[in-house]
Specification:
Elements: H1 3-17, H2 23-38, E1 41-45, H3 50-60, E2 67-71, E3 77-81, E4 89-93, H4 99-115, E5 120-125, H5 144-155, E6 159-163, E7 178-181, H6 184-194, E8 199-203, H7 209-219, E9 223-232, E10 235-242, E11 249-257, H8 261-272, E12 277-285, H9 291-296, E13 303-306, E14 318-321, H10 324-335
Parallel strand pairs: 1-4, 4-5, 5-6, 6-7, 8-9, 8-11, 11-12, 12-13, 13-14
Antiparallel strand pairs: 2-3, 9-10
Helix pairs in contact: 3-10, 4-5
């Protein structure tokens, strides 16, 4: 409400009800716009994403907010904001891997921010855990990604910002806005700088087909599919290649690298089919179990990942690309009510 509009409303009220508007109300209305503009962005981190949060804050141009996680001897913890966040735009950065503690910590951070009268709370979840449980693919199982969406909303989040959900339709599990960032904006410049000819893109499974197709379309190149069959989770029983890779440099693209079993088997089969080289681009380096051993012993030239999850080990084949700038720009655009569509790769090369 601007000053002139307020004077009109004040005049109408005085004429109709014959009383004077209280000074406190006048002062609030006069300065409400100014108060809104003075609300600031504050970025905080959970224990699972401290390094990335620091880089995001640095790219944004602010210091990381002062928050501590108090630990109790039995494993219980309590997030504490050590500064006022009343009326502020609060961005809480936390990947949910390992999912249990990090998810609970994020929920408690959201709850604490809401109770501290934060103006607007955005859960920045670079890696959204439990996303692989997005459907009922067998009897009597949980749809955990929907449960997590409910928990985040119930805790008090006003918005969620994430990157490369395992299934884009998970956005529909939320009744609050979701900003779904795309790692292609990070991977495509890297691929362009390789300056390789005879490139072909490959999906390590049918589920990643759409993701790979969009990148292949950008370059105007073909793609192939590695069709896998599983006996159980994290174990590939059989794999076939749909398409011709002979004499090609193959670029595998996926959202998650867990045990690296699928990528290792894909690379081996692609080389058997005549590929000149195989490299993989995976957004989230979960890298559990024998992942590092599998990668080192694989036919992969390199595995390029994002820093959505901190690495647990070292490998000469793994290269990490930063997502900090992308998240920082998305945070700024969110705060300024600007579109984030400019952060996505559009059209053909």
């Amino acid at each position: 409400m601007n000053f002139q509009n307020f004077l009109k409303i004040k005049s109408l009220i005085q004429c109709k009800y014959l009383f004077t508007v209280p000074h406190a109300l006048f002062t609030f209305a006069l300065h409400s716009d100014t108060m809104f503009m003075q609300s600031s962005v504050k970025i905080f981190s959970g224990t699972g994403s401290t390094y990335l949060a620091e880089q995001i804050a640095k790219s944004f141009g602010k210091q990381l907010g002062n928050l501590t996680i108090q630990k109790f001897s039995d494993g219980e913890f309590q997030p504490v904001f050590n500064e006022s966040i009343r009326g502020d735009y609060v961005f809480l950065v936390q990947s949910t891997s390992a999912p249990s503690d990090n998810l609970m910590e994020l929920l408690m951070m959201i709850d604490a921010a809401r109770r501290a009268s934060a103006g607007y709370i955005t859960a920045v979840i670079p890696y959204y855990g439990f996303a692989r449980q997005d459907r009922k693919d067998k009897p009597r199982v949980a749809i955990a990604s929907k449960l997590v969406a409910n928990l985040l909303t119930t805790a008090g989040a006003n918005r969620v910002m994430t990157m490369d959900l395992h299934a884009p339709q998970i956005q529909g599990f939320f009744d609050i806005p979701v900003d779904h960032l795309d790692s292609s904006a990070i991977f495509i410049p890297y691929i362009e700088n390789l300056n390789m000819e005879n490139i072909i893109f490959a999906s390590p499974d049918v589920g990643s087909t759409n993701r790979v197709r969009e990148v292949a379309k950008y370059f105007g190149l073909d793609m192939v599919i590695c069709d896998k069959q599983r006996k159980r989770a994290n174990e590939v029983a059989a794999m076939t290649v749909i398409g011709d890779v002979s004499g090609k440099h193959v670029v595998l693209i996926d959202d998650i690298c867990d045990t690296a079993g699928t990528l290792s088997k894909s690379a081996a089969i692609l080389k058997e089919r005549g590929a000149l080289s195989v490299r993989a681009f995976c957004t989230h380096p979960v890298l559990s179990g024998k992942a590092y051993e599998n990668i080192e012993n694989s036919e992969l030239e390199e595995l390029v990942v994002c820093d959505t999850i901190p690495l647990k080990g070292q490998s000469s084949k793994i290269k990490v690309l930063s997502t900090a700038e992308l998240f920082a720009v998305a945070i700024r655009n969110t705060f300024e009510n600007k579109s984030i569509s400019s952060l996505f790769v559009h059209g053909k090369k």
